[in-house]
Amino acid sequence: MPEKKNILKIILPLLILTAGIIAFRFMAARRHSPAKKSIVIHRALVKIVRIKRENRRVLIRETGIIHPRREVNISPQVSGRVVYTAPNLLAGYYFKKGDILFRIEAVDYKLAINRAQAEVAKMEYELAATRSKAQVARFEWLRQHKGRPLPTDSLALYGPQLKNARAALLSAQAALQQAEINLRRTTITAPFNCRVKDEQIALGQYLQTNSKAATLIGTDYAEAVVPVPLSDLAWLRLPKNWRARRQGSRAEVQIQDGGRLISWPGRLIRSLSEVDQTGSMPRLIVEIPDPFNLLSPKSGRPALTMGMFADIIFKGKTAVGVYPIPVGALRDNNTVWLMNKEDKLRITPVRISRRNRNEILISDGLKENERLIISNLAGAVDGMPLRLEDNGQL
């Protein structure tokens, strides 16, 4: 028995060791070598547009204030009691040139004409009588002084008396003309097509000469005063004188009315001699015809209100051979991102010709048909691998 136990102690570990070796070799034979992993290059997704070279009209958008071109205070040139006022002589109403605004009592001025006419008749009689006396005196002088020349400016021949009579007649005629003018001035009319801004007159009121009765503004034209940056003046056509005013840059005047965009045509006609209140920008004048739509009532536009702010879009000169790009495509104020032929990022410096509200005009640094990246990239570096999004080319 002891011998069997000793044999088991020796054989059992050998069996266990042999079984382990067999199992290890079996497992090793079934194990596969690890597959090699392929290297994946991650490419950033981008959207692009193709660059095109164009001639582009420069648009300059600024804000201006609407003013009347003409504004006058109406004052009578003669004094008197107001006996008539036009029914529409109220703020906001319109008049055509020559329409009657109001009348001043004319009785005194008609009497003044009668007196002046009588004075003219009297002076005509005095001149005729003096001429008759001069003829008689001349005849007598020639009869008494045969062969002698007539003296000049002789009281005896009524020379000075004739001059005085002629002067008195001219004075009486001038007084009559003045009386007739004063009578016409009792009727005050609109000096041009106008709208009443305000009035300080009532029926029965006594008006002194040159006292203010109403303020009128012209309706044929309005003007917009527009501060414009000095750098924008080179893109505008500014007339040098009144005759050349039709050669100025065209403009569009826009306002928002209850969510509706309303526009009027305009034209740059001149510049003012001083800068705006900030002291940095010159001020330009844009002419706006028919601001109250009296000539085109079917246009549906409201009347422009004087003193209101409006957007002024100047249609400036044409930028030749530039590359328009979206505002968001400009990086770091002077570079753009391009996708090169190897589908990699190329950061390119550019020269800016003009910045508009919705686009930037590039004059140098780009080529026709290059691929401009318009989407944003995190950590963009030159040479970054790129790929287009689905439908990523615009």
Automatic annotation (TrEMBL):
Coiled-coil residues: 106-133
Protein's organism: hydrothermal vent metagenome
GO cellular component annotations of the record: efflux pump complex
Species lineage: unclassified sequences, metagenomes, ecological metagenomes
An MF annotation (GO) of this entry: efflux transmembrane transporter activity
Domain Multidrug resistance protein MdtA-like barrel-sandwich hybrid positions: 70-216
Residue ranges of domain Multidrug resistance protein MdtA-like C-terminal permuted SH3 in the record: 330-377
Pfam annotation, one family: BSH_RND
Name of the featured protein: Uncharacterized protein
Chief location category: other
Keywords on record: Coiled coil, Membrane, Transmembrane, Transmembrane helix, Transport
Cell compartment(s), UniProt: Cell envelope
TM stretches of this protein: 6-28
